[in-house]
Amino acid sequence: MSGHLSPPRFSSHRRFLELKLSDLHKCSDLGSLLQIHSQIIRLGLHLDPFVAPKLITAYSLCRRPSAAAAVFDLVPNPNSHLFNTLIRAFSHNSLPSLSFLALSRMQLSAIPVDSFTYHFLLKSSMGILRRLEVIQAHIVKLGFLSDIFIPNTLIDCYSKVGEAGIIAARKVFDEMPMKDVVSWNSMIAALARAGEIWDAKQMFDEMPERDTVSWNTMLDGFVKSGEVDSAFDLFRKIPDRNVVSWSTMLSGYCKKGDFEMARLLFDKMPVRNLVPWTIMISGYAEKGLAAEASSLLDRMENAGLVPDSAATISILTACSESGLLALGKRIHTAAKKKKQNLTTQIGNALVCMYSKCGDLDDSWIVFNEILVKDLVSWNSMLQGLAMNGQGKRALELFASMKEEGITPDRVTFIGVLCACNHIGLIKEARWHFASMKKDYGIIPEIEHYGCMIDLLGRGGLLMEAYSLAKTMPFEANAIIWGSILNSCQVHNNVSIAERIVDELIDMEGIDTGDIAIISNIYASAGRWDGMAKARMKMKDMGKQKQAGSSWIEIDDAVHEFTVGDRMHHQADRILKMIDRLGKHLKHLGSAVEAA
DNA sequence: ATAGGGTTAG
After folding, report:
1. Is residue A595 scored above 80 in pLDDT?
2. Closest nucleotide to A54: CA versus each C1'
3. CA–CA distance, A171 with A132 (Å, rounded to integer)
4. β-pairing verdict for A549-554 and A557-562
5. Where in chain A is the domain with CATH 1.25.40?
6. pLDDT over 90 for what percent of chain A?
7. Residue A505 CA to B8 C1' — how many Å?
8. How far is the CA of A163 from the C1' of B6 (A)?
9. Which nucleotides of B are covered by protein (CB under 7 A)?
Protein backbone atom coordinates (compact mmCIF):
# COMPACT_ATOMS: atom_id res chain seq x y z
CA MET A 1 0.00 0.00 0.00
CA SER A 2 1.02 3.62 -0.15
CA GLY A 3 1.19 4.12 3.63
CA HIS A 4 4.84 5.10 3.48
CA LEU A 5 3.92 8.19 1.46
CA SER A 6 1.68 9.67 4.17
CA PRO A 7 3.22 11.97 6.76
CA PRO A 8 3.30 10.66 10.33
CA ARG A 9 -0.19 10.47 11.83
CA PHE A 10 0.30 12.97 14.61
CA SER A 11 1.62 15.76 12.44
CA SER A 12 -1.17 15.32 9.91
CA HIS A 13 -3.66 15.62 12.73
CA ARG A 14 -1.87 18.62 13.99
CA ARG A 15 -1.88 20.35 10.62
CA PHE A 16 -5.57 19.55 10.17
CA LEU A 17 -6.24 21.06 13.55
CA GLU A 18 -4.18 24.18 12.90
CA LEU A 19 -6.28 24.86 9.85
CA LYS A 20 -9.41 24.55 11.95
CA LEU A 21 -7.98 26.53 14.84
CA SER A 22 -7.46 29.71 12.87
CA ASP A 23 -11.19 29.84 12.15
CA LEU A 24 -12.42 28.13 15.29
CA HIS A 25 -14.02 31.28 16.72
CA LYS A 26 -16.20 31.51 13.58
CA CYS A 27 -17.48 27.94 13.86
CA SER A 28 -21.24 28.09 14.21
CA ASP A 29 -22.03 24.40 13.75
CA LEU A 30 -22.21 22.56 17.04
CA GLY A 31 -21.36 19.17 15.53
CA SER A 32 -18.07 20.32 14.01
CA LEU A 33 -17.28 22.29 17.13
CA LEU A 34 -17.64 19.23 19.38
CA GLN A 35 -15.37 17.30 17.03
CA ILE A 36 -12.68 19.98 17.03
CA HIS A 37 -13.02 20.47 20.78
CA SER A 38 -12.34 16.79 21.48
CA GLN A 39 -9.21 16.93 19.32
CA ILE A 40 -8.09 20.05 21.16
CA ILE A 41 -8.45 18.28 24.48
CA ARG A 42 -6.54 15.26 23.15
CA LEU A 43 -3.67 17.58 22.26
CA GLY A 44 -3.91 19.36 25.61
CA LEU A 45 -4.52 22.71 23.92
CA HIS A 46 -7.74 23.60 25.72
CA LEU A 47 -5.86 25.65 28.31
CA ASP A 48 -3.83 27.51 25.67
CA PRO A 49 -4.44 31.25 26.15
CA PHE A 50 -5.04 31.64 22.42
CA VAL A 51 -7.31 28.63 22.04
CA ALA A 52 -9.59 28.92 25.09
CA PRO A 53 -11.09 32.29 24.05
CA LYS A 54 -11.78 30.92 20.58
CA LEU A 55 -13.58 27.93 22.08
CA ILE A 56 -15.69 30.18 24.27
CA THR A 57 -16.55 32.35 21.28
CA ALA A 58 -17.49 29.32 19.20
CA TYR A 59 -19.77 27.89 21.89
CA SER A 60 -21.35 31.30 22.23
CA LEU A 61 -21.99 31.32 18.48
CA CYS A 62 -23.56 27.86 18.71
CA ARG A 63 -25.87 29.15 21.45
CA ARG A 64 -24.29 27.01 24.15
CA PRO A 65 -23.39 29.53 26.87
CA SER A 66 -23.11 26.86 29.55
CA ALA A 67 -20.52 25.00 27.48
CA ALA A 68 -18.68 28.29 27.07
CA ALA A 69 -18.69 28.74 30.84
CA ALA A 70 -17.45 25.17 31.29
CA VAL A 71 -14.45 25.86 29.04
CA PHE A 72 -13.73 28.99 31.08
CA ASP A 73 -13.91 27.16 34.40
CA LEU A 74 -11.17 24.74 33.40
CA VAL A 75 -8.64 27.53 32.85
CA PRO A 76 -6.70 27.91 36.14
CA ASN A 77 -5.74 31.60 36.02
CA PRO A 78 -8.09 33.36 33.64
CA ASN A 79 -6.85 36.75 32.44
CA SER A 80 -8.88 39.84 31.50
CA HIS A 81 -9.12 38.72 27.93
CA LEU A 82 -10.70 35.40 28.86
CA PHE A 83 -13.13 37.07 31.25
CA ASN A 84 -14.12 39.54 28.55
CA THR A 85 -14.75 36.72 26.10
CA LEU A 86 -16.97 35.00 28.64
CA ILE A 87 -18.93 38.18 29.32
CA ARG A 88 -19.42 38.57 25.58
CA ALA A 89 -20.73 34.98 25.40
CA PHE A 90 -23.30 35.75 28.09
CA SER A 91 -24.21 39.01 26.40
CA HIS A 92 -24.77 37.33 23.00
CA ASN A 93 -26.97 34.75 24.64
CA SER A 94 -29.10 37.28 26.54
CA LEU A 95 -27.87 36.34 30.00
CA PRO A 96 -27.16 39.77 31.47
CA SER A 97 -27.14 38.64 35.08
CA LEU A 98 -24.38 36.13 34.31
CA SER A 99 -22.39 38.92 32.65
CA PHE A 100 -22.55 40.87 35.88
CA LEU A 101 -21.73 37.80 37.93
CA ALA A 102 -18.59 37.40 35.83
CA LEU A 103 -17.74 41.03 36.52
CA SER A 104 -17.92 40.50 40.26
CA ARG A 105 -15.76 37.39 39.93
CA MET A 106 -13.24 39.54 38.09
CA GLN A 107 -13.29 42.14 40.84
CA LEU A 108 -13.00 39.50 43.58
CA SER A 109 -9.97 37.92 41.92
CA ALA A 110 -8.46 41.36 41.30
CA ILE A 111 -8.33 40.81 37.54
CA PRO A 112 -8.06 44.24 35.90
CA VAL A 113 -11.14 45.40 34.00
CA ASP A 114 -10.64 47.33 30.79
CA SER A 115 -12.75 49.08 28.18
CA PHE A 116 -13.56 45.74 26.53
CA THR A 117 -15.12 44.55 29.78
CA TYR A 118 -17.37 47.58 29.86
CA HIS A 119 -18.13 47.35 26.20
CA PHE A 120 -19.65 43.91 26.68
CA LEU A 121 -21.43 44.92 29.86
CA LEU A 122 -23.09 47.73 27.92
CA LYS A 123 -24.15 45.26 25.23
CA SER A 124 -25.53 42.99 27.96
CA SER A 125 -27.66 45.83 29.30
CA MET A 126 -29.18 46.75 25.97
CA GLY A 127 -32.60 48.23 26.57
CA ILE A 128 -32.35 48.79 30.32
CA LEU A 129 -31.86 52.50 30.99
CA ARG A 130 -31.08 52.29 34.68
CA ARG A 131 -28.37 49.71 34.16
CA LEU A 132 -26.78 51.67 31.34
CA GLU A 133 -26.60 54.72 33.60
CA VAL A 134 -24.88 52.74 36.35
CA ILE A 135 -22.33 51.33 33.93
CA GLN A 136 -21.75 54.75 32.45
CA ALA A 137 -20.93 56.08 35.93
CA HIS A 138 -18.30 53.33 36.29
CA ILE A 139 -16.95 54.08 32.84
CA VAL A 140 -16.57 57.77 33.61
CA LYS A 141 -14.83 57.04 36.91
CA LEU A 142 -12.43 54.57 35.30
CA GLY A 143 -11.64 56.93 32.43
CA PHE A 144 -12.73 54.59 29.66
CA LEU A 145 -14.62 57.32 27.81
CA SER A 146 -11.33 58.21 26.16
CA ASP A 147 -11.57 55.00 24.17
CA ILE A 148 -13.84 56.14 21.35
CA PHE A 149 -15.45 52.69 21.07
CA ILE A 150 -17.07 53.24 24.45
CA PRO A 151 -19.00 56.48 23.86
CA ASN A 152 -19.95 55.11 20.44
CA THR A 153 -21.38 51.99 22.08
CA LEU A 154 -23.13 54.15 24.68
CA ILE A 155 -24.89 56.15 21.96
CA ASP A 156 -26.10 52.96 20.33
CA CYS A 157 -27.25 51.30 23.56
CA TYR A 158 -28.99 54.40 24.90
CA SER A 159 -30.77 54.96 21.63
CA LYS A 160 -32.45 51.59 21.99
CA VAL A 161 -34.34 52.36 25.21
CA GLY A 162 -36.82 54.82 23.77
CA GLU A 163 -37.70 58.38 24.76
CA ALA A 164 -35.39 58.88 27.76
CA GLY A 165 -32.58 57.05 26.01
CA ILE A 166 -32.37 59.42 23.09
CA ILE A 167 -31.67 62.33 25.44
CA ALA A 168 -28.88 60.37 27.13
CA ALA A 169 -27.46 59.36 23.75
CA ARG A 170 -27.47 62.97 22.60
CA LYS A 171 -25.69 64.03 25.78
CA VAL A 172 -22.94 61.46 25.28
CA PHE A 173 -22.54 62.57 21.68
CA ASP A 174 -22.44 66.30 22.51
CA GLU A 175 -19.88 65.80 25.25
CA MET A 176 -17.46 63.80 23.12
CA PRO A 177 -14.28 65.85 22.64
CA MET A 178 -13.44 63.89 19.50
CA LYS A 179 -16.00 62.25 17.26
CA ASP A 180 -15.32 59.89 14.41
CA VAL A 181 -17.58 58.89 11.54
CA VAL A 182 -19.03 56.04 13.61
CA SER A 183 -20.08 58.49 16.35
CA TRP A 184 -21.98 60.54 13.78
CA ASN A 185 -23.48 57.48 12.12
CA SER A 186 -24.63 56.09 15.47
CA MET A 187 -26.21 59.40 16.43
CA ILE A 188 -28.01 59.65 13.08
CA ALA A 189 -29.30 56.10 13.51
CA ALA A 190 -30.39 57.02 17.05
CA LEU A 191 -32.38 60.06 15.90
CA ALA A 192 -33.96 58.08 13.07
CA ARG A 193 -34.97 55.31 15.45
CA ALA A 194 -36.60 57.92 17.69
CA GLY A 195 -38.65 59.12 14.74
CA GLU A 196 -36.75 62.43 14.55
CA ILE A 197 -36.02 61.90 10.89
CA TRP A 198 -35.49 65.55 9.99
CA ASP A 199 -33.13 66.12 12.92
CA ALA A 200 -31.25 63.11 11.61
CA LYS A 201 -31.16 64.64 8.14
CA GLN A 202 -29.83 67.89 9.54
CA MET A 203 -27.08 66.04 11.37
CA PHE A 204 -26.32 64.08 8.21
CA ASP A 205 -25.92 67.35 6.31
CA GLU A 206 -23.72 68.82 9.03
CA MET A 207 -21.33 65.93 9.52
CA PRO A 208 -17.76 66.53 8.39
CA GLU A 209 -17.30 63.40 6.29
CA ARG A 210 -19.69 60.71 5.15
CA ASP A 211 -18.94 57.08 4.39
CA THR A 212 -21.24 54.53 2.77
CA VAL A 213 -22.63 53.59 6.16
CA SER A 214 -23.67 57.21 6.76
CA TRP A 215 -25.61 57.29 3.50
CA ASN A 216 -27.19 53.90 4.18
CA THR A 217 -28.15 54.88 7.73
CA MET A 218 -29.89 58.01 6.48
CA LEU A 219 -31.52 56.00 3.71
CA ASP A 220 -32.85 53.46 6.19
CA GLY A 221 -34.10 56.30 8.40
CA PHE A 222 -36.20 57.64 5.53
CA VAL A 223 -37.48 54.18 4.64
CA LYS A 224 -38.47 53.34 8.22
CA SER A 225 -40.25 56.70 8.56
CA GLY A 226 -42.27 55.93 5.46
CA GLU A 227 -40.53 58.68 3.47
CA VAL A 228 -39.79 56.47 0.50
CA ASP A 229 -39.61 59.33 -2.00
CA SER A 230 -37.06 61.20 0.11
CA ALA A 231 -35.21 57.92 0.39
CA PHE A 232 -35.07 57.54 -3.36
CA ASP A 233 -33.81 61.12 -3.81
CA LEU A 234 -31.02 60.33 -1.38
CA PHE A 235 -30.36 56.94 -2.99
CA ARG A 236 -29.65 58.61 -6.31
CA LYS A 237 -27.05 60.86 -4.70
CA ILE A 238 -25.08 58.09 -2.96
CA PRO A 239 -21.56 58.18 -4.38
CA ASP A 240 -20.78 54.49 -3.88
CA ARG A 241 -23.88 52.39 -3.46
CA ASN A 242 -23.37 48.90 -2.11
CA VAL A 243 -25.71 45.96 -1.69
CA VAL A 244 -26.99 47.45 1.58
CA SER A 245 -28.05 50.67 -0.15
CA TRP A 246 -29.95 48.74 -2.83
CA SER A 247 -31.52 46.40 -0.28
CA THR A 248 -32.69 49.25 1.93
CA MET A 249 -34.31 50.92 -1.05
CA LEU A 250 -35.95 47.63 -2.07
CA SER A 251 -37.46 47.12 1.35
CA GLY A 252 -38.91 50.62 1.23
CA TYR A 253 -40.75 49.94 -2.02
CA CYS A 254 -41.86 46.48 -0.90
CA LYS A 255 -43.38 47.81 2.33
CA LYS A 256 -45.22 50.41 0.30
CA GLY A 257 -46.47 47.67 -2.02
CA ASP A 258 -44.80 49.33 -5.02
CA PHE A 259 -43.50 46.15 -6.58
CA GLU A 260 -42.96 47.75 -9.95
CA MET A 261 -40.21 49.96 -8.53
CA ALA A 262 -38.94 47.25 -6.21
CA ARG A 263 -38.63 44.76 -9.04
CA LEU A 264 -37.01 47.33 -11.31
CA LEU A 265 -34.31 48.01 -8.73
CA PHE A 266 -33.94 44.34 -7.88
CA ASP A 267 -33.32 43.40 -11.50
CA LYS A 268 -30.96 46.34 -11.95
CA MET A 269 -28.79 45.95 -8.87
CA PRO A 270 -25.25 44.83 -9.68
CA VAL A 271 -24.64 42.44 -6.76
CA ARG A 272 -27.26 40.30 -5.03
CA ASN A 273 -26.70 38.29 -1.87
CA LEU A 274 -29.38 36.47 0.14
CA VAL A 275 -30.72 39.69 1.67
CA PRO A 276 -32.27 41.35 -1.41
CA TRP A 277 -33.75 37.99 -2.48
CA THR A 278 -35.26 37.62 0.97
CA ILE A 279 -36.65 41.15 0.92
CA MET A 280 -38.34 40.61 -2.43
CA ILE A 281 -39.74 37.17 -1.65
CA SER A 282 -41.01 38.20 1.80
CA GLY A 283 -42.31 41.43 0.31
CA TYR A 284 -44.44 39.56 -2.21
CA ALA A 285 -45.47 36.98 0.39
CA GLU A 286 -46.48 39.56 2.97
CA LYS A 287 -48.88 41.14 0.49
CA GLY A 288 -50.32 37.74 -0.43
CA LEU A 289 -48.72 37.62 -3.89
CA ALA A 290 -48.12 33.87 -3.77
CA ALA A 291 -47.26 33.27 -7.42
CA GLU A 292 -44.68 36.06 -7.56
CA ALA A 293 -43.07 35.00 -4.29
CA SER A 294 -42.91 31.40 -5.35
CA SER A 295 -41.43 32.02 -8.78
CA LEU A 296 -38.81 34.31 -7.31
CA LEU A 297 -37.90 31.58 -4.86
CA ASP A 298 -37.46 29.26 -7.86
CA ARG A 299 -35.11 31.77 -9.44
CA MET A 300 -33.18 32.15 -6.23
CA GLU A 301 -32.69 28.42 -5.89
CA ASN A 302 -31.67 28.18 -9.54
CA ALA A 303 -29.06 30.82 -8.82
CA GLY A 304 -27.62 28.34 -6.31
CA LEU A 305 -28.63 30.26 -3.18
CA VAL A 306 -29.97 28.42 -0.15
CA PRO A 307 -32.04 30.28 2.48
CA ASP A 308 -30.18 30.74 5.75
CA SER A 309 -31.96 31.08 9.08
CA ALA A 310 -32.68 34.79 8.69
CA ALA A 311 -34.15 34.26 5.22
CA THR A 312 -36.16 31.28 6.44
CA ILE A 313 -37.59 33.19 9.37
CA SER A 314 -38.46 36.32 7.47
CA ILE A 315 -40.19 34.46 4.63
CA LEU A 316 -42.10 32.32 7.14
CA THR A 317 -43.19 35.43 9.04
CA ALA A 318 -44.42 36.95 5.80
CA CYS A 319 -46.36 33.76 5.04
CA SER A 320 -47.98 33.92 8.49
CA GLU A 321 -49.14 37.44 7.88
CA SER A 322 -50.98 36.58 4.70
CA GLY A 323 -51.75 32.90 5.16
CA LEU A 324 -49.57 31.54 2.35
CA LEU A 325 -49.50 27.93 3.49
CA ALA A 326 -48.03 26.46 0.31
CA LEU A 327 -45.02 28.79 0.30
CA GLY A 328 -44.53 28.28 4.02
CA LYS A 329 -44.48 24.52 3.52
CA ARG A 330 -41.97 24.91 0.74
CA ILE A 331 -39.63 26.86 3.01
CA HIS A 332 -40.14 24.22 5.70
CA THR A 333 -39.13 21.48 3.26
CA ALA A 334 -36.06 23.45 2.22
CA ALA A 335 -35.08 23.85 5.88
CA LYS A 336 -35.49 20.11 6.50
CA LYS A 337 -33.17 19.35 3.59
CA LYS A 338 -30.35 21.09 5.39
CA LYS A 339 -30.25 18.22 7.86
CA GLN A 340 -29.52 20.55 10.75
CA ASN A 341 -31.40 20.44 14.01
CA LEU A 342 -34.50 22.56 14.18
CA THR A 343 -33.48 25.71 16.02
CA THR A 344 -35.80 27.34 18.51
CA GLN A 345 -36.25 30.44 16.39
CA ILE A 346 -37.03 28.62 13.16
CA GLY A 347 -39.30 26.21 15.02
CA ASN A 348 -41.18 29.16 16.50
CA ALA A 349 -41.57 30.79 13.10
CA LEU A 350 -42.92 27.49 11.71
CA VAL A 351 -45.39 26.98 14.56
CA CYS A 352 -46.61 30.52 14.06
CA MET A 353 -46.89 30.12 10.28
CA TYR A 354 -48.81 26.83 10.46
CA SER A 355 -51.13 28.18 13.18
CA LYS A 356 -51.94 31.38 11.33
CA CYS A 357 -52.59 29.34 8.19
CA GLY A 358 -54.96 27.13 10.18
CA ASP A 359 -52.86 23.99 9.80
CA LEU A 360 -52.86 22.91 13.44
CA ASP A 361 -51.65 19.37 12.78
CA ASP A 362 -48.37 20.52 11.29
CA SER A 363 -48.11 23.26 13.88
CA TRP A 364 -48.32 20.65 16.62
CA ILE A 365 -45.79 18.35 14.92
CA VAL A 366 -43.24 21.16 14.64
CA PHE A 367 -43.86 22.29 18.21
CA ASN A 368 -42.99 18.82 19.46
CA GLU A 369 -39.86 18.77 17.30
CA ILE A 370 -38.44 21.89 18.93
CA LEU A 371 -35.79 20.49 21.26
CA VAL A 372 -35.26 23.63 23.32
CA LYS A 373 -38.63 25.34 23.68
CA ASP A 374 -38.64 28.91 24.91
CA LEU A 375 -41.50 31.13 26.06
CA VAL A 376 -42.16 32.15 22.47
CA SER A 377 -42.57 28.50 21.39
CA TRP A 378 -45.18 27.88 24.09
CA ASN A 379 -46.95 31.16 23.42
CA SER A 380 -47.10 30.50 19.68
CA MET A 381 -48.56 27.03 20.12
CA LEU A 382 -50.98 28.24 22.78
CA GLN A 383 -52.17 31.07 20.58
CA GLY A 384 -52.39 28.75 17.60
CA LEU A 385 -54.68 26.38 19.46
CA ALA A 386 -56.72 29.21 20.93
CA MET A 387 -57.13 30.96 17.59
CA ASN A 388 -58.21 27.81 15.80
CA GLY A 389 -61.01 26.87 18.13
CA GLN A 390 -59.07 24.37 20.24
CA GLY A 391 -59.69 26.19 23.51
CA LYS A 392 -59.56 23.08 25.64
CA ARG A 393 -56.25 21.89 24.21
CA ALA A 394 -54.90 25.42 24.63
CA LEU A 395 -55.74 25.43 28.34
CA GLU A 396 -54.18 21.97 28.71
CA LEU A 397 -51.03 23.30 27.05
CA PHE A 398 -51.04 26.23 29.48
CA ALA A 399 -51.10 23.77 32.35
CA SER A 400 -48.22 21.68 31.00
CA MET A 401 -46.27 24.84 30.29
CA LYS A 402 -46.47 25.78 33.95
CA GLU A 403 -45.50 22.23 34.93
CA GLU A 404 -42.37 22.63 32.79
CA GLY A 405 -41.51 25.65 34.91
CA ILE A 406 -42.06 28.23 32.18
CA THR A 407 -43.28 31.56 33.59
CA PRO A 408 -46.17 32.95 31.53
CA ASP A 409 -46.01 36.55 30.29
CA ARG A 410 -48.54 39.05 28.92
CA VAL A 411 -48.67 37.27 25.56
CA THR A 412 -49.41 33.94 27.25
CA PHE A 413 -52.44 35.43 28.95
CA ILE A 414 -53.78 36.85 25.71
CA GLY A 415 -53.74 33.26 24.47
CA VAL A 416 -55.31 31.91 27.65
CA LEU A 417 -58.14 34.46 27.62
CA CYS A 418 -58.65 33.90 23.92
CA ALA A 419 -58.92 30.15 24.60
CA CYS A 420 -61.53 30.73 27.32
CA ASN A 421 -63.34 32.98 24.89
CA HIS A 422 -63.55 30.25 22.25
CA ILE A 423 -65.14 27.76 24.56
CA GLY A 424 -67.20 30.29 26.48
CA LEU A 425 -65.55 29.77 29.87
CA ILE A 426 -66.48 33.02 31.55
CA LYS A 427 -65.72 31.88 35.07
CA GLU A 428 -62.27 30.54 34.16
CA ALA A 429 -61.48 33.68 32.21
CA ARG A 430 -62.31 35.87 35.21
CA TRP A 431 -60.08 33.68 37.34
CA HIS A 432 -57.09 33.87 34.93
CA PHE A 433 -57.62 37.62 34.47
CA ALA A 434 -57.30 38.12 38.22
CA SER A 435 -54.47 35.61 38.52
CA MET A 436 -52.22 37.27 35.95
CA LYS A 437 -51.92 40.30 38.18
CA LYS A 438 -52.04 38.54 41.53
CA ASP A 439 -49.72 35.59 40.81
CA TYR A 440 -47.47 36.94 38.06
CA GLY A 441 -47.48 40.70 38.53
CA ILE A 442 -48.62 41.29 34.95
CA ILE A 443 -50.72 44.43 34.58
CA PRO A 444 -53.53 43.73 32.09
CA GLU A 445 -53.21 45.69 28.85
CA ILE A 446 -55.85 46.78 26.37
CA GLU A 447 -55.57 43.43 24.54
CA HIS A 448 -56.43 41.55 27.75
CA TYR A 449 -59.38 43.81 28.43
CA GLY A 450 -60.42 43.38 24.81
CA CYS A 451 -60.50 39.60 25.25
CA MET A 452 -62.52 39.85 28.46
CA ILE A 453 -64.99 42.29 26.93
CA ASP A 454 -65.45 40.12 23.86
CA LEU A 455 -65.95 37.08 26.05
CA LEU A 456 -68.52 38.78 28.29
CA GLY A 457 -70.36 40.05 25.25
CA ARG A 458 -70.49 36.67 23.56
CA GLY A 459 -71.77 35.21 26.81
CA GLY A 460 -74.66 37.66 26.72
CA LEU A 461 -73.37 39.76 29.63
CA LEU A 462 -73.68 42.85 27.48
CA MET A 463 -74.08 45.40 30.25
CA GLU A 464 -70.99 44.11 32.01
CA ALA A 465 -69.03 44.11 28.75
CA TYR A 466 -70.11 47.69 28.07
CA SER A 467 -69.23 48.95 31.54
CA LEU A 468 -65.84 47.19 31.50
CA ALA A 469 -65.10 48.94 28.21
CA LYS A 470 -66.06 52.27 29.82
CA THR A 471 -64.18 51.79 33.09
CA MET A 472 -60.97 50.04 32.05
CA PRO A 473 -57.85 52.20 32.26
CA PHE A 474 -57.66 52.47 28.45
CA GLU A 475 -59.79 54.25 25.88
CA ALA A 476 -61.81 51.57 24.09
CA ASN A 477 -61.03 51.39 20.37
CA ALA A 478 -63.26 50.65 17.39
CA ILE A 479 -62.37 46.96 17.49
CA ILE A 480 -63.59 46.62 21.07
CA TRP A 481 -66.81 48.52 20.44
CA GLY A 482 -67.31 46.49 17.30
CA SER A 483 -67.01 43.26 19.24
CA ILE A 484 -69.74 44.25 21.70
CA LEU A 485 -71.87 45.43 18.81
CA ASN A 486 -71.55 42.01 17.24
CA SER A 487 -72.68 40.42 20.47
CA CYS A 488 -75.63 42.80 20.63
CA GLN A 489 -76.72 41.41 17.29
CA VAL A 490 -76.42 37.83 18.51
CA HIS A 491 -78.32 38.58 21.73
CA ASN A 492 -80.81 41.04 20.18
CA ASN A 493 -79.96 43.94 22.47
CA VAL A 494 -81.06 47.22 20.93
CA SER A 495 -80.37 49.64 23.78
CA ILE A 496 -76.73 48.76 24.31
CA ALA A 497 -76.19 48.60 20.55
CA GLU A 498 -77.42 52.19 20.32
CA ARG A 499 -75.05 53.31 23.05
CA ILE A 500 -72.18 51.68 21.23
CA VAL A 501 -73.06 53.31 17.95
CA ASP A 502 -72.95 56.65 19.82
CA GLU A 503 -69.51 55.80 21.17
CA LEU A 504 -68.30 54.85 17.70
CA ILE A 505 -69.67 58.06 16.21
CA ASP A 506 -68.03 60.11 18.97
CA MET A 507 -64.63 58.65 18.23
CA GLU A 508 -65.22 58.79 14.46
CA GLY A 509 -64.50 55.10 14.28
CA ILE A 510 -67.77 53.96 12.78
CA ASP A 511 -67.69 52.13 9.46
CA THR A 512 -70.20 50.62 7.08
CA GLY A 513 -69.83 47.22 8.71
CA ASP A 514 -71.02 48.64 12.05
CA ILE A 515 -73.98 50.31 10.39
CA ALA A 516 -74.88 47.07 8.69
CA ILE A 517 -74.97 45.39 12.10
CA ILE A 518 -77.10 48.05 13.79
CA SER A 519 -79.43 47.93 10.82
CA ASN A 520 -79.78 44.16 11.31
CA ILE A 521 -80.39 44.65 15.02
CA TYR A 522 -83.19 47.14 14.32
CA ALA A 523 -84.63 44.83 11.71
CA SER A 524 -84.88 41.82 13.98
CA ALA A 525 -86.44 43.99 16.69
CA GLY A 526 -89.00 45.20 14.14
CA ARG A 527 -87.65 48.76 14.42
CA TRP A 528 -88.03 49.61 10.74
CA ASP A 529 -87.55 53.33 11.28
CA GLY A 530 -84.13 52.77 12.82
CA MET A 531 -83.23 50.35 10.11
CA ALA A 532 -84.12 52.79 7.35
CA LYS A 533 -82.07 55.52 9.04
CA ALA A 534 -79.10 53.21 9.31
CA ARG A 535 -79.40 52.22 5.66
CA MET A 536 -79.42 55.90 4.68
CA LYS A 537 -76.38 56.56 6.76
CA MET A 538 -74.61 53.64 5.13
CA LYS A 539 -75.32 55.00 1.64
CA ASP A 540 -74.10 58.39 2.88
CA MET A 541 -70.77 57.00 3.97
CA GLY A 542 -70.41 55.15 0.72
CA LYS A 543 -67.27 53.20 0.36
CA GLN A 544 -65.00 55.74 2.03
CA LYS A 545 -63.58 53.04 4.21
CA GLN A 546 -62.11 49.94 2.66
CA ALA A 547 -63.93 46.90 3.94
CA GLY A 548 -61.89 44.20 5.59
CA SER A 549 -61.56 40.91 3.81
CA SER A 550 -60.64 37.35 4.59
CA TRP A 551 -59.08 34.81 2.33
CA ILE A 552 -58.22 31.17 2.29
CA GLU A 553 -55.78 29.17 0.22
CA ILE A 554 -56.99 25.86 -1.23
CA ASP A 555 -54.85 23.87 -3.66
CA ASP A 556 -52.63 26.88 -4.42
CA ALA A 557 -55.57 29.11 -5.30
CA VAL A 558 -56.43 32.08 -3.08
CA HIS A 559 -60.13 32.76 -2.49
CA GLU A 560 -60.92 36.20 -1.09
CA PHE A 561 -64.14 37.39 0.52
CA THR A 562 -65.40 40.81 1.64
CA VAL A 563 -68.56 41.71 3.53
CA GLY A 564 -71.63 41.10 1.39
CA ASP A 565 -69.78 40.21 -1.78
CA ARG A 566 -71.02 37.51 -4.12
CA MET A 567 -68.09 37.60 -6.48
CA HIS A 568 -66.88 34.08 -5.84
CA HIS A 569 -67.84 31.65 -8.61
CA GLN A 570 -69.37 29.32 -6.05
CA ALA A 571 -70.97 32.08 -3.97
CA ASP A 572 -74.41 30.43 -4.07
CA ARG A 573 -73.14 27.13 -2.73
CA ILE A 574 -71.04 28.89 -0.09
CA LEU A 575 -73.94 31.00 1.16
CA LYS A 576 -76.19 27.97 1.26
CA MET A 577 -73.62 26.11 3.31
CA ILE A 578 -73.21 29.06 5.72
CA ASP A 579 -76.97 29.09 6.10
CA ARG A 580 -77.01 25.36 6.83
CA LEU A 581 -74.17 25.75 9.35
CA GLY A 582 -76.01 28.60 11.03
CA LYS A 583 -79.16 26.52 11.39
CA HIS A 584 -77.12 23.60 12.65
CA LEU A 585 -75.48 25.81 15.29
CA LYS A 586 -78.83 27.23 16.38
CA HIS A 587 -80.12 23.71 16.69
CA LEU A 588 -77.14 22.69 18.80
CA GLY A 589 -77.51 25.84 20.87
CA SER A 590 -81.15 25.17 21.73
CA ALA A 591 -80.27 21.55 22.50
CA VAL A 592 -77.66 22.78 25.00
CA GLU A 593 -80.07 25.28 26.53
CA ALA A 594 -82.70 22.57 26.90
CA ALA A 595 -80.25 20.27 28.62
C1' DA B 1 2.56 35.20 14.40
C1' DT B 2 -1.74 33.54 17.05
C1' DA B 3 -7.02 36.89 20.92
C1' DG B 4 -12.08 40.63 22.71
C1' DG B 5 -14.91 46.18 20.79
C1' DG B 6 -18.69 50.69 17.84
C1' DT B 7 -22.63 52.54 12.90
C1' DT B 8 -26.32 50.48 7.71
C1' DA B 9 -30.13 45.99 4.56
C1' DG B 10 -33.55 40.33 5.28
Report:
1. no
2. B3
3. 14
4. antiparallel
5. 445-548
6. 72
7. 45
8. 22
9. 2-10
Task: Give A445-548's CATH code, choosing from 1.25.10, 2.40.30, 1.25.40, 2.60.120.
Answer: 1.25.40
Contacts of A357 (CB under 8 A, 6+ apart): A319, A320, A323, A324, A325, A328, A553
CA distance A25 to A32: 12
* Cα–Cα distance measured from residue A82 to residue A56, given in angstroms and rounded to the nearest whole number: 9
How would residue A381 be classed by pLDDT, with cut points 50, 70 and 90? very high
Instruction: Report which residue is nearest nucleotide B5 when distances run from CA to C1'.
Output: A116
pLDDT in tens, A190-204: 999 999 999 999 999
User: Looking at the predicted structure, is the pLDDT value of residue A368 above 60?
Assistant: yes
For chain A, give the mean pLDDT. 90
Instruction: Please determine, for residue A593, whether its predicted confidence score (pLDDT) is greater than 70.
Output: no
CA distance to A43, A378, A382, A429, per residue, from A399 (Å)? 49, 11, 11, 14
| Nucleotide at minimal C1' distance from the A307 CA | B10
Helices vs strands, H then E, count in chain A: 33, 2
Residue of least CA–C1' distance to B10: A275
Tell me the CA–C1' distance in angstroms for A80 and B1: 21
Closest nucleotide (CA of A85 to C1')? B4
Question: What's the pLDDT score for residue A154?
Answer: 97
Report, in this order, helix, strand and coil percent for chain A, each rounded to 5. Answer: 70, 0, 25
List the A249 CA – B6 C1' distance (angstroms). 25
Strand-pairing partners, residue A552, are A559
What's the Å distance between residue A40 CA and nucleotide B2 C1'?
Answer: 15
The Å distance, CA of A36 to C1' of B1, is: 22
**Residue ranges in A257-374 assigned as alpha helix (H):** 259-268, 274-286, 290-302, 309-322, 325-337, 344-356, 360-369
Nearest residue to A197 via CA among A211, A217, A180: A217
